Backbone:
């Protein structure tokens, strides 16, 4: 491949970056940013425009670029005539001549402006309205997603007061149901104040997270209490099927439990005392109680570990 052909290929790649800028954020590849330095001459630029655009798009770009050149000449930002600075035929500018190089740089600049201004940005408002707040997504992250979509798919200038009002309404309408119901109660200036919307949304979001954590701890307490109750089941005097003088399987086809004597302990089975007098009862029944106390402390937020 000849040096001239290599240069043209490189210029094509570089101008494609500039072309993508003109197409708008919505049509750029992810992570796009024009980092390469491009320096095509007049003929290179025509080849690149012919390669990347159809004839109509090229005419639109050159027309927009020429208008900008005319304005700069009228404002005396550049010297010479329009034909000198924005020729329709190859002027043969010598890159080694400072005056020619200055005109080539301005021509490149005007063409770049033409690409940015002449090629219309694709507008797709439906993309913005498709975005909904996810259940575990914070209000701030949700708002940033809305702003990015507005930049990418719409012509909203998000820093203008009009755009902020519109974003507020979209933020309100597409938040999670509980947050939306709360925001809908705001009135007047509060409804138009994005900071206020975020404040209310964040408060509800934080409370929701705390409630979820509390329910999880309550579920843990219920499980531990259930285990404790299961361990204590039937230990008391007269408990179902296991009380003094009772049988577990009586009338149910189960295996009968030996009856306790009148003065026999239900816990250690020794005679001469009852269960509530048994010194061994505390140690046998203490562990479930400890587990329940620990779980209660966790739910109440009093357990340091």
Residues:
């Amino acid at each position: 491949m000849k040096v001239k052909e290599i240069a043209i290929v490189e210029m094509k790649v570089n101008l494609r970056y500039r072309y993508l800028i003109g197409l708008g954020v919505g049509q750029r590849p992810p992570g796009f940013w024009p980092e390469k330095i491009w320096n095509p001459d007049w003929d290179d630029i025509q080849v690149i425009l012919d390669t990347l655009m159809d004839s109509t798009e090229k005419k639109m770009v050159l027309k927009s670029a020429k208008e900008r050149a005319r304005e700069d000449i009228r404002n005396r930002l550049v010297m010479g005539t329009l034909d000198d600075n924005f020729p329709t035929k190859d002027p043969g500018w010598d890159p080694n001549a400072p005056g020619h190089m200055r005109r080539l740089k301005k021509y490149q600049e005007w063409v770049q402006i033409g690409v940015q201004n002449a090629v219309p940005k694709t507008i797709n408002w439906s993309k913005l309205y498709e975005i909904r707040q996810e259940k575990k997504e914070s209000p701030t992250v949700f708002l940033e997603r809305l702003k990015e979509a507005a930049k990418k798919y719409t012509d909203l200038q998000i820093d203008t007061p009009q755009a902020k009002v519109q974003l507020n309404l979209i933020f309100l309408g597409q938040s999670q149901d509980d947050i939306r119901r709360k925001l809908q109660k705001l009135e007047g200036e509060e409804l138009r104040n994005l900071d206020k919307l975020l404040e209310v949304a964040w408060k509800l979001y934080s409370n929701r997270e705390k409630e979820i954590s509390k329910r999880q701890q309550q579920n843990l307490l219920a499980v531990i209490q259930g285990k404790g109750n299961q361990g204590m089941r039937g230990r008391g005097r007269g408990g179902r099927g296991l009380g003094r003088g009772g049988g577990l399987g009586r009338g149910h086809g189960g295996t009968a439990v030996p009856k306790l004597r009148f003065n026999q302990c239900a816990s250690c089975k020794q005679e001469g005392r009852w269960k509530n007098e048994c010194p061994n009862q505390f140690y046998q029944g203490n562990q479930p109680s400890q587990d329940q106390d620990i779980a209660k402390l966790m739910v109440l937020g009093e357990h340091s570990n």
Summary: Residues 3-118 form a domain with the Human Immunodeficiency Virus Type 1 Capsid Protein fold (CATH 1.10.375).
